[in-house]
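Page 37, continued from 36.
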């Protein structure tokens, strides 16, 4: 829990933090890719059913991420301030808050499977398949939310390597267990979609044990019950950042759910192709997601230590890298989309839809990375409203309306064009907004220092 990010070369810190996180995010995305690959072998209906679960699973994952963002923001700033007792209290209270949230959402989720997925456009023949996956996944939410919050606390302390190792181990467990549960290897019952959910739940359970063990070992937990006002104050501070972060994170998968319902008009194969392309996109964006994940702890610690110039420098380097990496990804993915899609499913329509998406959308990947970096930055600063505003503009003002119009005029290609345009527009906004925020803080600090100096001069004269 040292202020280990407030000194030294900024660029080197970003590289040293991002590289281990790449492997952690790679493991998480890899098991999603593995799920898609194995389920794709079951058939187009099973793949479509899993694609319908994606927005819901991601929405509830966003709840966990939002709580983690709120916890990471205040914990990183407390570390920057050098307040160990405050760090312990906030870490423990964030875990108790996540446990409460799990109980609420498991109950709601299990009671709304049929109406929710019917509203998303799932056909009656797909609902039994969706049930088999979601009934297991909902009960495993405790192994999703609590470890994610715990891992966020670990990252806030600058222990990116540990957080990454936990993610890697869980990903490996999931990938290894998938074929055993899905296809019934080694004499196990063939569970198909339910097996994919079972493998995910077991893998997540390992992250719960690992995160709690590390937090215990590093003395980041309190073992006495706080007074109610103290607990509520901790929850309020976490939720001040966490609720907008969770809300804005939920907006994206919920909007994708709306987009999925638009794609569903073109058939189950189109939904399956959209699902394949979405997972390939996530895999290609691993580096940008990793950078966004570590920029929060770096900014939080330096902001808490009042090292504003280091925050500004880290953002300059991060945005430049997003631009470079986006161009690199587009040059690789766009011409190879058909081949990549065929690895998951051989259905010509599935391949065509996925390949079309991967031809159009990659031009905006750099801007999408800039959005993630800007959002993580504002949350780390304890300023969640700009982050929320960017997501609202991106998804509700631009993406969904433009996708609706694009479908009417250009068919399914219009939906994909809307994706690219909304990414580029809001990525530019995020860059401008973060630069202005840092400049304003620098100016306010300079004015404050001038004011203090004037008071000292007046005092000396007297």
């Amino acid at each position: 829990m040292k202020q280990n990010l407030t000194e030294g070369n900024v660029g080197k810190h970003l590289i040293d933090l991002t590289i281990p996180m790449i492997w952690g995010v790679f493991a998480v995305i890899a098991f999603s890719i593995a799920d898609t690959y194995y389920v794709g072998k079951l058939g187009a209906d099973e793949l479509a059913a899993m694609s319908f679960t994606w927005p819901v699973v991601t929405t509830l994952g966003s709840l966990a991420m939002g709580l983690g963002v709120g916890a990471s923001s205040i914990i990183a700033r407390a570390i920057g301030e050098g307040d160990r007792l405050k760090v312990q209290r906030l870490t423990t209270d964030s875990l108790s808050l996540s446990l409460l949230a799990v109980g609420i959402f498991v109950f709601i989720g299990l009671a709304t499977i049929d109406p929710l997925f019917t509203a998303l456009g799932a056909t009656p023949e797909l609902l039994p398949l969706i049930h088999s996956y979601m009934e297991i996944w909902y009960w495993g939410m405790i192994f999703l939310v609590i470890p994610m919050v715990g891992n966020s606390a670990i990252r806030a302390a600058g222990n990116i390597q540990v957080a990454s190792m936990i993610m890697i181990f869980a990903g490996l467990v999931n990938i290894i267990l998938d074929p055993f549960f899905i296809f019934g290897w080694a004499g196990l019952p063939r569970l198909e979609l339910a097996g994919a959910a079972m493998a995910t739940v077991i893998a997540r359970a390992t992250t719960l044990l690992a995160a709690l063990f590390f937090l215990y070992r590093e003395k980041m937990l309190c073992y006495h019950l706080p007074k109610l006002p103290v607990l509520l104050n901790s929850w309020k501070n976490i939720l001040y950042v966490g609720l907008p972060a969770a809300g804005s994170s939920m907006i994206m998968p919920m909007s994708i759910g709306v987009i999925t319902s638009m794609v569903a008009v073109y058939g189950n194969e189109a939904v399956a192709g959209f699902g394949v392309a979405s997972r390939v996109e996530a895999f290609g964006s691993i580096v940008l997601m990793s950078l966004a994940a570590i920029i929060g702890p770096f900014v939080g610690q330096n902001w808490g230590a009042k090292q504003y110039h280091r925050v500004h420098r880290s953002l300059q380097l991060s945005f430049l890298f997003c631009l470079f990496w986006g161009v690199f990804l587009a040059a690789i993915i766009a011409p190879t989309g058909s081949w990549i899609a065929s690895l998951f499913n051989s259905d010509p329509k599935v391949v065509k839809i996925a390949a079309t998406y991967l031809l159009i959308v990659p031009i905006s990947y750099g801007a999408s990375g800039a959005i993630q970096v800007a959002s993580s930055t504002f949350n780390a600063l304890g300023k969640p409203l700009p982050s929320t505003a960017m997501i609202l503009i991106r998804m509700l003002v631009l993406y969904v309306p433009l996708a609706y119009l694009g479908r009417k005029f250009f068919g399914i290609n219009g939906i994909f064009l809307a994706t690219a345009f909304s990414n580029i527009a809001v990525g530019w906004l995020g860059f401008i907004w973060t630069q202005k925020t840092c400049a304003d803080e620098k100016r306010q600090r300079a004015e404050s220092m001038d004011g203090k100096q004037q008071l000292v001069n007046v005092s000396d004269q007297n």
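The first helix runs from residue 10 to 40. Flag for discussion at group meeting. The two ends are 45 Å apart (CA to CA).
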